[in-house]
Every structure is written in structure tokens, then in C-alpha cells.
Design goal:
The complex is a heterodimer of chains A (151) and B (188). Chain A is of the alpha+beta class and 151 residues long. Chain A is 38% helix and 21% strand. Chain B starts with 41 loop residues before the first strand and ends in a 16-residue tail after the last helix. Classes of the chains: A alpha+beta (151), B alpha+beta (188). Chain B: One of its GO terms (cellular component) is cytosolic large ribosomal subunit.
Amino acid sequence: MGLGKFVEVGRVVKINYGPQEGKLATIIEILNDKRVLIDGPTTGVQRQVIPIRRLTLTKFNLKGATRGARTGVITKAIKKNDPFTQYQNTIAAKKVAKKALRAKLTDFDRFRVMILRKRRSALLSTQLKALRKNNAGGKSAAQAKGGNKKK
Amino acid sequence: MPAKKRTVRIGNWYKSDDEKVHFVRKRKAPRPAKLRKIVPGQVLILLSGRFQGKRVVFLKQLKSGLLLVTGPFKINGVPLKRVNSAYVIPTSTKVDVTGVNANQIDDDYFKRTQAQRRKNEQGFWAKRGELTAEQQTAEKTRLDGKRNTQKSVDAALITAIKKTQLLKQYLGARFTIGKTTRPHELVF
């Protein structure tokens, strides 16, 4: 395991604990081995001191963040190159979003998801059967997927 | 001739002076239960009784405080029924009930008729065949009347339900809890 993510000025972090749980911010200053100053003007995180223990480091960095930079400077840097939207496109962020969406499903939504999953599975199995018949013996890599949405 | 004595009939039971009356109901009629935000047309999940887990459509609150619901009958077999709002989970799904007329249905609709009560009096041994011909025809007309009311109420409801995809199947299915479902975390 290489040392990939460092606690450094500009590191994009995710807050794990506390009232701001789930939000992203950038490290502005390192105070000691346990606390940092973070700021997230575009993500709704107030400039604050927070223990490192409450953060997860992401692999993204905010270019143009200097040590102790004020919120205005940070906002400008974000406008130039936004690492927060880059983070939302990662698989980890998408999983979190999916989980949040699933938690919001109503009873009727859950029923519809169940029906759609069954339909998709039925489509897949008929396609697979047809492919198996055609390629008797060979494993087919290409499987046509049904056009159904899955939440 | 001795004076006629006035006699007071003492029954078998009379109140002693120091008898405590534990609970005196001041209100003669029960107060209808306050309806937590349940709206006509809302789909409810029944939690107890023969139809547990069934999803039904709420029509209105009756004077007794009970909720009037219907399956609709054709969709899930639940007839016009009174239900206690405590044994119900309201979901966020709503059906358009503007065309549904349930005005003529109230608590009296569900009252047991004389014939029914008489039948129950005979108890276990009473069989359907033992009704007189008159009673049988009365029963038949009563049940036909009920079927017609059911149909008339459900007709508009079913056309409204058919407009939403999968809603009919949703109402036909029961709500179940599996091993991994956490009811306290579910959004209804």
C-alpha cells in the first residue's frame, strides 16, 4: 500500500462525524498532528477547526489553495478547477448517493423496483439462454442488457 | 284494622354508601379519533385482522372514528370495511377519489341485522339451510344490496387506479417484512 493521500493544504476531505456529516471540504491549514482547519464555501461547510479523526481523505486536491487562504481565495480556486464535482463522479460517491436514494423510496417505489428487477432478470435470462443455444459450448462475452432503469 | 304498611322492595343488590365508583364516563358518545394526516384516497396498509398486510384505499372517516376503506374488492378482495386508524400504516401513495361517492355509507351500514343476530343466537348449530325461506330471501336481498354498493363505490376508484402504472398490482400485493427489512427505517 503506497502512501497516496496526505493531510496537506488543499486536500479535499469528507466529514464523517458531527453535524456536517457527509459534506466535503478542503484543508486550509494544519494546526497540529490532530487538528486541521477546513473550509467548504461551495459545499456549505463553515470554516472551522476539526479533528483529523473526523475526516476521510479523498484523492482530490484543490489547486490554488495556499496555506491559511481566506474563503474568497478558496472560492476563486474552486471556480477555476472544481474537485468537488470530480469527487461526485467517483464510484464511492455514487454508492453513497444510491444508498441515500434507496432510503427515500416509498412503499410504492419499492414495489415498482421489485417488479422492474424481476422483468430485467427475466429479459437477461432469455437473452442468455438464446446466446447459450447459439454458441453451444462457448462462453459469450457480450450480453444484451434490457433497457430498464434500476434505482 | 292495622295501618297498611308501606313496603319497599329491596332487590338482591343495593349500593352501600361507601362503594367507590371507579370510572364514570362523562361523555355519552365516544369522541371520534383524531385523524393523523390521512387523506381520502390515500393507500393504507392494514396491520391486523384477516386482511393484514393488504394495501387498501381510504375513503373517509366515519362518525365512530373508524376509517372506511375499500380494497377495491375486485383488486384485492377487501370489501367496504371499517378499520381502526391505530392498526394502519398510511403510505404516501394517493389515488384520485374525486369521482367516488361513499356518502351513503356510515356506521349503520355495518350494523348487524336482526336476522343475523338471531342466527348468532342459535349459535354453533345454526346452519344456513335452517333459515326460513323468508329469511333466506331477506339475506339474499341484503347481500345483493351490499354487492351493488360495493360495485358502485369501486367503479370510479378502479378507473382512477388504472391510470397509474403498476398501482393495481401494488394494491393486489400484500406488504411483507423479510429478514433484512427494517420497518423503523422504511419510508412509507
